[in-house]
Amino acid sequence: MLTPPLRVSPMLLVTIPFSHYNERARWALQRFGVPFVERGYVPLFHFLGVIRHVGLRGGRSDRASTPLSTPVLVTDDGERLRDSGQIVRYVSDRFSSAATTLYPDELRGEIEEVERRAHDDIGPHTRRLVYHYLLSHPRLFAEIIRANVGRAQYTAFRVLQPLVTLGLRRALGISEPRARRSLERIRGVVAELDERLGERRYLVGERFTAADLTVASLLAPVLVPESYGAKLPPLDALPSELRAVVEETRATRTGAQVMRVYAEERGARVGPDPRE
């Protein structure tokens, strides 16, 4: 492990605040006490935010993102990190100790395999499913936007909400049949994770690792944990169909583990404080 510097200038994190991929990166930064400033944007508005803060170069496309996706971390030395998994690894490798690392050497391969599976087979599907329900309830979606961005963005969003809704449906491939298929995919992966967990407390090894952080973050949209890093509506404010999915997922072994991890680990801070 690298020795943390005595002081770190605030880093910049560009986000869609309530996005679960952004939560993954924000959780790692907050866990290790890394000073950062968050710039949050409405979905689709974030394209302009990414261009404004980091430009067009250096991004990449994969199954879950585009070159203008968030999160983007601008480090204190000017490096641009444009992937949530890359950010988690960077933060852990730079600021952790052997006792607090999210990637113990002997488990790193297994942890990264769980991360890849969650990134590819949980993240896109929880996103599509939840947006499917939220975009069908414009008032609730507007309230989520209002709670997570400033007044100017919220005002612009309200004017453009029909266009934002159409853009999100097209960009994320949102439709009733695809939402149903995403729900089945989530159920299948959760069943596999239930088997992996068995009676253990953590997905890999005997303590909290990046595997737990990643699965928890990317399942959070269908669990709605209270300690999530952005403002989410309470369970009873959700559409009945989405509330039923949340209750079903919470009742699984994996759902219960994620809720426990959020309660015990989301507010925890470990390792040296780089500001001291």
Strand content: 5-15%
CATH class of the largest domain: Mainly Alpha
According to DSSP, the number of beta strands is: 4
Number of helices: 11
N to C succession of SSEs: EHEHEEHHHHHHHHH
Q: Helix proportion of residues, in percent?
A: 40-55%
For the biggest β-sheet, the strand order reads: 2-1-3-4
Low-confidence residue ranges: 1-6
Overall geometry comes to globular
Rg, Å, rounded: 18 Å
Structure classification? mainly alpha
How many domains make up the 3D coordinates? 2
What does this structure look like?
This protein is mainly alpha-helical and 276 residues long. The chain has 2 domains: 11-99, Glutaredoxin (3-Layer(aba) Sandwich); 107-265, Glutathione S-transferase Yfyf (Class Pi), Chain A, domain 2. It contains 11 helices and 4 strands. It has a 4-stranded mixed beta sheet with strand order 2-1-3-4, sandwiched between helices. Helix 1 (20-31) packs parallel to helix 3 (84-95), helix 4 runs parallel beside helix 9 and helix 6 (138-148) crosses helix 7 (151-172). The longest helix has 22 residues, at 151-172.
